[in-house]
């Protein structure tokens, strides 16, 4: 006779990992469900769309800048291939930056790769999925894997290619890439490009409309400018701005300045004020006399730099924005821009070594003023 009662199963228990859509991050809530939902990657989508008809999927290597849809694309493709019921048993997703050692390859990856795919489960949604006779292993941030792990992975890719296909995801593939050539050569390469402004604008407008968030075009433009082609970052900024706006009653309108504050970007007014003191024409109403004495100009520049640093702005961010302003300025000549570039290079090295931010911001400001004022 057993003294322990059998554990009763609770058929009415709440399913695990169910997230309230209100609390769900928008980057997950609006992740593409099909490859046709992927934005601005026409070539890659066109090629992968054909694999849905032939179901003959090679090993793949997705590379490109962050936030361009690499992981979303392979997940969407896997859902279309296997359907929701077979997805869990047919797809293994790993982040190689966390699980990058050879032990993970020999144990978790090899064990999954060698298993014969389970029989197809009929989908409950009434749709018919191709469900080809192989599994997919997704290795995100694959360039973080060690050399030994990649060596072991190469052999697994060869041995179990009939029943397992690999998709490696990384940011860059170059001659100096940390992905070894034997692994890269076994994969079909797909390059993901940064999103163009029109595609990003369309996607962000769609999300804002779905969330009932009023976003002026100027705010969308600022989201695109601060995210630099990274749609994931832009969506995160939009969600943060929405939360900030709805925290007051009534909700406050979202402005471009709000986006800059959320993104950690120095506001344009601050950069323009500094540029004006440095003698760069930015169309500001505030002008500095050209014949101001050198001592007075130095005091003006030092005062402006001190004010910016005291406001808590990052020196690296300030210098990056001043750099872009100078390099793209239409009235400065090539010699002036070259002299300024040398100053920025020295400052970048010094700040990377831990130098004082205020002193080097002042050093760069004086160098820019000298180049703009005296270079011929």
UniProtKB/TrEMBL annotation:
<dbReference type="GO" id="GO:0005524">
    <property type="term" value="F:ATP binding"/>
</dbReference>
<dbReference type="GO" id="GO:0031391">
    <property type="term" value="C:Elg1 RFC-like complex"/>
</dbReference>
<dbReference type="GO" id="GO:0006281">
    <property type="term" value="P:DNA repair"/>
</dbReference>
<keyword id="KW-0547">Nucleotide-binding</keyword>
<dbReference type="GO" id="GO:0003689">
    <property type="term" value="F:DNA clamp loader activity"/>
</dbReference>
<keyword id="KW-0235">DNA replication</keyword>
<dbReference type="GO" id="GO:0005634">
    <property type="term" value="C:nucleus"/>
</dbReference>
<dbReference type="Pfam" id="PF00004">
    <property type="entry name" value="AAA"/>
</dbReference>
<comment type="similarity">
    <text>Belongs to the activator 1 small subunits family.</text>
</comment>
<dbReference type="GO" id="GO:0016887">
    <property type="term" value="F:ATP hydrolysis activity"/>
</dbReference>
<dbReference type="Pfam" id="PF08542">
    <property type="entry name" value="Rep_fac_C"/>
</dbReference>
<dbReference type="Pfam" id="PF21960">
    <property type="entry name" value="RCF1-5-like_lid"/>
</dbReference>
<dbReference type="InterPro" id="IPR003959">
    <property type="entry name" value="ATPase_AAA_core"/>
</dbReference>
<feature type="domain" description="AAA+ ATPase">
    <location>
        <begin position="56"/>
        <end position="198"/>
    </location>
</feature>
<dbReference type="InterPro" id="IPR013748">
    <property type="entry name" value="Rep_factorC_C"/>
</dbReference>
<keyword id="KW-0539">Nucleus</keyword>
<dbReference type="InterPro" id="IPR003593">
    <property type="entry name" value="AAA+_ATPase"/>
</dbReference>
<dbReference type="InterPro" id="IPR008921">
    <property type="entry name" value="DNA_pol3_clamp-load_cplx_C"/>
</dbReference>
<dbReference type="GO" id="GO:0005663">
    <property type="term" value="C:DNA replication factor C complex"/>
</dbReference>
<dbReference type="InterPro" id="IPR050238">
    <property type="entry name" value="DNA_Rep/Repair_Clamp_Loader"/>
</dbReference>
<dbReference type="InterPro" id="IPR027417">
    <property type="entry name" value="P-loop_NTPase"/>
</dbReference>
<keyword id="KW-0067">ATP-binding</keyword>
<dbReference type="GO" id="GO:0006271">
    <property type="term" value="P:DNA strand elongation involved in DNA replication"/>
</dbReference>
<dbReference type="InterPro" id="IPR047854">
    <property type="entry name" value="RFC_lid"/>
</dbReference>
<protein>
    <recommendedName>
        <fullName>Replication factor C subunit 2</fullName>
    </recommendedName>
</protein>
<dbReference type="GO" id="GO:0003677">
    <property type="term" value="F:DNA binding"/>
</dbReference>
């Amino acid at each position: 006779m057993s003294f322990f009662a059998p554990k009763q199963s609770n058929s009415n228990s709440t399913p695990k990992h169910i997230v309230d859509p209100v609390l769900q991050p928008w980057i997950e809530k609006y992740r593409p469900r099909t490859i046709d939902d992927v934005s601005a990657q026409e070539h890659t989508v066109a090629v992968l769309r054909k694999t849905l008809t032939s179901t003959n999927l090679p090993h793949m290597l997705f590379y490109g800048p962050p936030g361009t849809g690499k992981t979303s694309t392979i997940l969407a493709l896997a859902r279309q291939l296997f359907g929701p019921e077979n997805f869990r048993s047919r797809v293994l997703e790993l982040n190689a930056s966390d699980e990058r050692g050879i032990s993970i390859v020999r144990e978790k990856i090899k064990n999954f790769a060698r298993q014969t795919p389970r029989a197809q489960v009929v989908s409950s949604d009434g749709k018919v999925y191709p469900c080809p006779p192989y599994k997919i292993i997704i290795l995100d941030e694959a360039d973080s894997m060690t050399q030994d792990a990649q060596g072991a992975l190469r052999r697994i890719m060869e041995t179990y290619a009939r029943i397992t296909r690999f998709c490696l995801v990384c940011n860059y593939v170059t001659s100096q890439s940390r992905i070894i050539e034997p692994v890269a050569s076994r994969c079909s390469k797909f390059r993901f490009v940064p999103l163009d402004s029109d595609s990003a604008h369309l996607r962000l407008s769609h999300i804002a409309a779905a969330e009932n968030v009023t976003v002026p075009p100027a705010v969308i433009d600022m989201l695109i400018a601060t995210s630099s082609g990274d749609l994931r970052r832009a969506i995160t900024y939009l969600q943060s701005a929405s939360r900030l706006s709805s925290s007051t009653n009534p909700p406050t309108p979202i402005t471009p300045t709000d986006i800059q504050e959320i993104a950690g970007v120095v506001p344009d007014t601050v950069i323009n004020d500094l540029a004006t003191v440095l003698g760069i024409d930015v169309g500001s109403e505030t002008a500095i006399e050209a014949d101001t004495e050198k001592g007075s100009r130095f005091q003006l520049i030092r005062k402006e730099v001190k004010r910016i640093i005291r406001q808590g702005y990052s020196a690296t961010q300030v210098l990056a924005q001043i750099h872009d302003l100078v390099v793209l300025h239409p009235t400065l000549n090539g010699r002036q821009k070259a002299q300024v570039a040398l100053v920025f290079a020295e400052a970048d090295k010094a700040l990377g070594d831990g130098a004082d931010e205020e002193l080097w911001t002042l050093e760069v400001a004086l160098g820019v003023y000298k180049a703009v004022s005296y270079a011929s």
